Amino acid sequence: MAGTDIFGYLRSPKPEGVFSSEDSMLVVGSIDATTKAYLVQQWNVEYRQDVQELFEIGSNRLFWQKGRPVGQGTIQRVLGGAAVGTGDGGDGLFPVDAYDLCKGGATMTIKAVGGHCRDATVGSSFKLNSGVRIEMDGVVVTSIGFSMSVQDVKLMENYQWRFGHLTLSTETAVL
After folding, report:
1. CATH class name, domain 16-172
2. What region, left, alpha or beta, does residue 106 occupy, with left being phi > 0 and alpha being psi -120 to 50 degrees?
3. Claim: this prediction has a pTM higher than 0.85
4. Among 9, 63, 137, 173, which lies 20 to 30 A Cα-Cα from 52?
């Protein structure tokens, strides 16, 4: 039953869903073979299309010049749970073709699914039942690096990549 709270907000007293990272999952790999991305600390994928405004002399008309889409991504993880991505057999986060620009790049899929909370006393479950599936094609690793700091003695592995095509869809959680 919805009601007005002491601050004047009209809303349901119970949440429709709970966002939790406890059971969240990130899988990185090709469409056919996937690898759990162990100990990932941060990831980012960006696909953009530049648009340039054009004006003609003597009028107030606006034109847009459409740019070509281009994508890039980064991922950072703690080393320890899986093999280092050396590119010698696809034993890291990326398949072997992603390290060789002359092969046209690789296909890569990132699937991220949200977690959920369960109430054992009531038997109910609040779920974030969907996530995202990002499929990139023409993936080429442009940088791999390693870092460590004195106060936080963890060896970090950092990847950067470029890609030429992106498709996006929702991913249903398998709980």
Report:
1. mainly beta
2. beta
3. no
4. 137
Among residues 126, 130, 106, 102, which one has the least CA distance to residue 116?
126
- The token pair at 92 is 């890291």
Task: Find the distance separating the first CA and the last CA of the chain, reported in whole Å.
Answer: 29
Looking at residue 94, what DSSP letter applies? S
CB burial of 42-76 (b: ≥16 within 10 Å; e: otherwise) equals ebebebeeeeeeeeeeeeeeeeeeeeeeebebebb
SS (H, E, C) 122-169: CCEEEECCEEEEEEEEEEEEEEEEEECCCCCCCCEEEEEEEECEEEEE
Task: Print pLDDT tens along the chain (175 aa).
Answer: 556 888 888 877 776 666 556 556 666 665 455 556 667 888 899 999 999 999 999 999 999 999 999 999 999 988 765 554 444 444 567 778 888 889 888 888 887 776 655 555 544 555 555 677 888 999 999 999 999 988 878 888 899 999 999 999 886 654 4
